[in-house]
Design a protein that fits this description.
By secondary structure, this protein is α/β, with parallel strands linked by helices. The chain contains 13 helices and twelve strands.
């Protein structure tokens, strides 16, 4: 027993030192930033002798080792893994169906929580004593991991299973902007009345879901204090420009794409290519029918973008790529809708610019933005229309911050 304890402590020290060194290399703001997962010694005792369920993907790392692999190595009894959009190992396209499977590395059953099965059932959880949620989010409303978080929280409460949320930094956590979602436009790409960029970590967002009673009323009646807990970050605040150690999804390959994504994901609701099938998805966007004097590119099928718009066609549009500093300067801590307005104005078939499935309105969280663009409203006018609801959200947000804010 003594030897096992010494080995365990040595392993924890090694993981901690490796991770801190990596954080120091990637994040100049803070030398000792620690994610929730990296503080493994603080939650490992809670897992002793328990059957554990883990919701995670490829971003759930401790240093260079996956959380699941680390816990298995330390003797934790992981019974089941739940995977989000793109799958547990993060290889699937956006929206691609992912089947349940057995993880080849660990032999643990993986249940996909995407598609028609977004929420764990009582059957899924019947042999589980405690749940862990560890996914790197990018702080954008239509990035579906916060929707998965909400379903996991509801399942935990309804089945009386403790849930540990291992917090991670928000790479877009240094500002708040965009239209606030209206309730009639709720979907998996936006489930709550928050702006597109909401400036909160996963842990802070979970606190807000509980505090504002945004989970279903029947679920909130069952909630018990301390059933859901957050392992908070160390040495992080909302001025931190955090560099992700692992790509959060196949088409967010660079930090520059992560910064630009809130502004250019709108193009998913239009005929335009959002750059899938190129080396710079979301930094490059365009269409074959736009003026040929614009930047040209040809999207082609690749891993993470097997099917998408305009494949093998020469597109004309915009290239916003550059180094981190130049991209951040272009954005100026705002969602930039000028590119959307300009693309619409230049597009010859305006009646077909927006997809007929109204996916654009789900991304925007309302039907106003589409109409404002059609009506020729200026960027200033559109942004001004966001302000009343943004101010209300910012007041709510302040109540649930776990870390110092950017202002």
């Amino acid at each position: 027993m003594k030897q096992m304890l010494i080995t365990l402590i040595a392993a924890l020290v090694f993981l901690s030192q490796t991770t801190c060194a990596q954080n120091q290399k990637n994040n100049t703001n803070y030398k000792q930033l620690e994610t929730g997962a990296e503080q493994i010694s603080s939650f490992l005792p809670l897992l002793k002798g328990k059957s554990v369920g883990v919701f995670a993907n490829q971003t759930a790392v401790i240093g260079k080792t996956h959380l699941v692999d680390s816990l298995v190595h330390l003797g934790v009894n992981i019974q089941i893994i739940f995977g989000p959009e793109h799958g547990f190992r993060g290889k699937a396209d956006a929206g691609e169906h992912v089947d349940n499977n057995i993880d080849a590395k660990t032999g643990i059953q993986v249940i996909s929580l995407y598609g028609n099965h977004k929420k764990p059932t009582s059957e899924d959880l019947k042999n589980i004593d405690i749940l862990i949620f560890d996914v790197q989010d990018v702080g954008v409303r239509f990035y579906t991991f916060i929707s998965s978080l909400e379903y996991m929280m509801e399942a935990a409460i309804e089945n009386n299973k403790p849930l540990l949320i291992l917090d991670r930094p928000n790479p877009n956590g240094f500002y708040v902007d965009g239209p606030v979602l209206e309730n009639e436009f709720k979907s998996f790409v936006g489930m709550q009345p928050i702006p597109i960029v909401y400036g909160m970590t996963i842990g802070e967002y979970a606190k807000m879901l509980l505090g504002e009673k945004w989970l279903s009323p029947s679920t909130m009646k069952l909630y018990k204090p301390d059933l859901i807990n957050v392992i908070t970050l160390k040495n992080y605040d909302h001025n931190t420009f955090y560099t992700l150690p692992v790509n959060p999804s196949p088409n967010l390959k660079e930090m520059e794409s992560i910064y630009i994504y809130p502004s250019t994901c709108f193009f998913e609701g239009t005929l335009l290519s959002e750059g899938r099938g190129t080396e710079k998805p979301f930094q490059i966007f365009g269409h074959p029918n736009l003026p040929k004097t614009l930047y040209s590119f040809t999207p082609k099928p690749n891993e993470g973008a097997k099917n998408s718009k305009c494949f093998n066609q020469t597109c004309y549009g915009w290239n916003l790529s550059g180094d981190k500093d130049s991209v951040l300067k272009k954005l100026n801590k705002k969602i930039q809708i000028k590119y959307l307005i300009e693309a619409y104005n230049l597009f010859p078939g305006k009646d077909s610019f927006f997809l007929k499935n109204n996916f654009f309105n789900k991304l925007a969280g309302n039907d106003k933005l589409m109409q404002q663009i059609k009506d020729g409203k200026s960027e200033i006018e559109i942004r001004k229309s966001w302000e009343p609801q943004l101010m209300k959200f910012k007041a709510i947000r302040k109540k649930y911050l776990l870390y110092a804010d950017f202002n």
